[in-house]
Specification:
By secondary structure, the protein is α+β, with helices and mostly antiparallel strands. Strand 9 and strand 10 form a beta hairpin. The protein has 3 domains: 175 residues, Threonyl-trna Synthetase, Chain A, domain 2 (Threonyl-tRNA Synthetase, Chain A, domain 2), CATH 3.30.980; 222 residues, Bira Bifunctional Protein, Domain 2 (BirA Bifunctional Protein, domain 2, 2-Layer Sandwich), CATH 3.30.930.10; 100 residues, Rossmann fold (3-Layer(aba) Sandwich), CATH 3.40.50.800. Helix 1 crosses helix 2, helix 3 packs antiparallel against helix 4 and helix 6 crosses helix 14. It starts with a strand and ends with a helix. The strands form 8 sheets. Strands 13-17-18-25-22-21-19-20 form an 8-stranded mixed β-sheet, sandwiched between helices. The chain is globular, with a radius of gyration of 29 Å. Its main location: cytoplasm. Its EC number is 6.1.1.3. It catalyses: tRNA(Thr) + L-threonine + ATP = L-threonyl-tRNA(Thr) + AMP + diphosphate + H(+). One of its GO terms (cellular component) is cytoplasm.
Length: 594
């Protein structure tokens, strides 16, 4: 694939840069199409991204519809057919500014002013369209083979909410149609797995703008799943000596000033509330509350490690564009814990946390994940607690522990918590990009800020070390992950309805009621479908909507014989006694079988 650089020379494109160049060129072609259709358009930034490309554009009062996006894509295809040569040129600053002024590119002019050290600027031109850009690009527009506009959204100029909201138009581009077709197939799979779609169909949760965006409410079926996950992880933690607590969802501003969240995390917190001369905030995390629980009484080295756990309600001010069902909301419940220990106990406590993470992943058959040691960016003095010695000590300590434990990990700069480095376990879902599910953070900072101490063997007072850890992450996000992995077909122990009883007709309703009662008495979550519908309709509803593990189809033959006909998710039907079926299902529930 030939590409052209800003100095005008043409060369073969390195293979690992092909998609980037294709998508960068697609952004220019899209901008040219937009300018043809909307002459008033004023362009901001238009980069290639990991998953496609976009351009932020000021269209004045013009609002775009889906039909408008289709017209832009249609115009792009015309430009591709025109096979316009893409040519670079370079201008000194004064001439470059003049060119942008003539073309009324106000955002480009402002961007040039930000680049104070630049004495010249490079541009690429195709037909009547000119864009300030460092390249490289395809040599002709016809080389753009496969692309699609996907959506529009809002975006602030320079990502600053004090600036004007622009229209962001997104698209994807690939080397060929086969790659685009594969992407579209993956998108279809993502739509089918989308936990918001499945959650609505199964009646798991709901949202309503009157309650507030990003504030999901769990319905009875969804709360059943939620409670099962809570019981599961608490059982695991109790077996490891965790002590569970409950703390309030708000705290004083002074609490978060003490912890450092007020200085380093305030933009993610809801605004303060004033009451009786004191300021309160909804908590974004519950570390400070657990610090105060530890500080509630004196401690000896004999008390450590002390493991405090909580399924904690937290609130973060996420922008509306990032909200996604229960995967990312403004309210969520963390599977949180704080482990207070001596420096000598760090290794064993990190090891126990890692063992718990991997045990949970085995229980849920999570196999596609990777471990990341997230470090601070030393140049960022605003985001991170400013103590180089503490950071160097904490990062090296966690690095050494993970290495000694034989855990393979990569390192990423700038992903640490503001108070310390962390181990992040990133999972790759069935569709879409990976995200962090579990985390273990090493903290020398907050214990010192809260003046936490313990009396050591020699009688001296020392400061404990704290591990912040979350195994399921948040129950909300973990549930969203499970919904999308299973397409709502939860294992029996987790399914909101474990068995659905389907009488074939009114004649077998009495027998169906008796079967339902016995299943319920055995502790099985069972629903009797006594609607006056044909049995085929009932089976489809149970399979495709409720996604139940088992359906009991009860006709005259079953009622007369006193047995049941069991239909599973595979569509296979088995005749058996009710007693044998109850034994089978209760075993699956007790053992949490997948």
């Amino acid at each position: 694939m030939k590409i052209i650089y800003k100095d005008g020379h043409v060369d073969e494109c390195p293979q690992d840069q092909e998609l980037h160049v294709i998508r960068h060129t697609a952004a220019h072609v899209m901008a040219q199409a937009i300018k043809r259709l909307y002459p008033q358009a004023d362009f901001a930034f238009g980069p290639a991204t990991e998953n496609g490309f976009y351009y932020d554009v000021d269209l004045g009062d013009q609002k775009l519809s889906d039909e408008d996006l289709a017209n832009i894509e249609k115009e792009m295809r015309k430009i591709v057919k025109e096979n316009l040569p893409i040519k670079p040129f370079i201008l000194p600053r004064a001439e470059a500014v003049k060119l942008m002024e003539e073309r009324k590119e106000n955002y480009k002019i402002e961007h040039m002013a930000d680049l104070a050290d630049e004495t010249e600027f490079s541009f690429f031109q195709q037909g009547e369209y000119v864009d300030m850009c460092i390249g490289p690009h395809l040599t002709y527009t016809k080389a753009l083979k496969a692309f699609k506009i996907t959506q529009q959204s809002g975006a602030y100029w320079k990502n600053d909410k004090e600036n004007k909201m622009l229209t962001r138009i997104n698209g994807v581009a690939f080397r060929n149609q086969e790659e685009l077709d594969a992407w579209e197939k993956e998108q279809q799979e993502a739509r089918e797995r989308d936990h918001r779609k499945i959650g609505k169909e199964m009646g798991l949760f709901m949202t309503d703008d009157l309650v507030g965006r990003g504030l999901p409410m769990f319905l009875p079926a969804g709360y059943t799943v939620w409670q099962e996950l809570e019981n599961y992880i608490k059982e695991k933690e109790r077996a490891r000596g965790y002590l569970h607590v409950m703390t309030p969802c708000i705290g004083t501003v002074n609490l978060y000033k003490t912890s450092g969240h007020w200085d380093h995390y305030r933009e993610n917190m809801f605004p303060a509330m004033e009451m009786e001369g004191e300021s309160y905030v909804l908590r974004p995390m519950n570390c400070p509350h657990h610090m105060m629980i530890y500080a509630n009484r004196p401690h000896s080295y004999r008390d450590l490690p002390m493991r405090i756990g909580e399924i904690a309600h937290d609130f973060r001010y996420e922008s509306s564009g990032t909200l996604k069902g229960i995967e990312r909301g403004r309210h969520f419940c963390q599977n949180d814990a704080h482990l207070f220990c001596t420096p000598e106990q760090i290794k064993s406590e990190v090891a126990d946390v890692c063992n718990l993470i991997f045990e949970v992943y085995k229980d849920f058959n999570i196999t596609d994940y990777r471990c990341v040691l997230s470090l601070r960016d030393p140049a960022d003095k605003k985001k991170y607690h400013d103590d180089d010695a503490m950071w160097n000590h904490a990062e090296q300590a966690l690095r050494e522990v993970l290495t000694e434990l034989g855990i393979h990990f990569t390192e990423e700069i700038g992903e640490a918590a503001f108070y310390g480095p962390k181990l992040d376990v990133n999972v790759k879902p069935a569709v879409g990009a990976e995200y962090t599910l579990s985390t273990c953070q090493l903290d020398f900072c907050l214990p010192a800020k809260f003046h936490l101490t313990y009396v050591d063997k020699d009688g001296s007072e020392k400061t404990p070390v704290v591990l912040h850890r979350a195994i399921l992450g948040s129950l909300d996000r973990f549930m969203a992950y499970l919904i999308e992995e299973t397409k709502g077909k939860f294992p029996t122990w987790l399914a909101p309805t474990q068995v659905k009883v389907l009488p074939v007709s009114e004649k077998t309703l009495e027998y169906a009621q008796d079967v339902t009662e016995k299943l319920s008495d055995a502790g099985i979550r069972v629903v009797l479908d006594d609607d006056n519908q044909k049995i085929g309709y009932k089976i489809r509803a149970a399979q495709q909507v409720d996604r139940v593990p088992y359906m009991l189809v009860l006709g005259a033959k079953e009622a007369e014989a006193g047995n049941i006909s069991v239909r599973d998710r595979k569509g296979e039907t088995t005749e058996m006694s009710l007693e044998d079926f109850i034994a089978k299902v209760t075993t699956e529930i007790r053992t949490r079988s997948l």
